[in-house]
Amino acid sequence: MKTLQIVGIAPTPIDDFLFMAIRFGFNLAATFVVVVLLYARNSKRKDFYFSYFAISIAVFLLCFLLENVKLELGFALGLFAIFGIIRYRTDTIPIKEMTYLFVIIAVSVINALSKAHLGYVELTFVNVLLVGALWTLEKVLMLRQEDSLLVIYENIENLHKEKEKELVADLENRTGIKIKRYQVEKIDFLRDVAQIMIYFDVKNSTKQEKK
């Protein structure tokens, strides 16, 4: 059996090294498609790109190198539990971004822990199936991403129940956003101002900005 010798490191079989390199390539390609071609085109958040790639690489190498410990499914589920706990111990992460994070972890675990007898055709099919499902949810079903904006509003006369249309029209005229719904958070009658949270579809607002 041919081995790869690196100074100061025990020799590694060439076959094992190539096996890891190919699996790593599969994982990196799948992560690129999910993050760059799917997530990036349907989200304005760019601060998650680095995190997604870093977590993908780290999880893959961790799972692949510890595969001989025979933790497998329990280890994979443990990763989901750990990141689930982190979700509630750090700054709030939007649900969609958290979902993509779990997808990235799942792809990395699948590519790292799938058995050696699983051919590259089957592995490619699994990755394509997962990416295709995400593409369907994003494109075909046209799932809309909702965003919100807190507005300090001084014309509190429009907060009257009978002036709802006037209120929405005034807010849309001032913000240039097509409002989907709104919620009055706070009213200060002494200062004649109110805090209103408006909700809108991100795609609709993006189209308006381009115009």
TrEMBL record:
Signal sequence bounds: none
Protein keywords: Membrane, Transmembrane, Transmembrane helix
Record carries keyword Transmembrane: yes
Domain of life: Bacteria
Pfam families: DUF4956
Transmembrane segments: 20-40, 49-67, 73-90, 97-114
Official protein name in the record: DUF4956 domain-containing protein
Organism: Maribellus comscasis
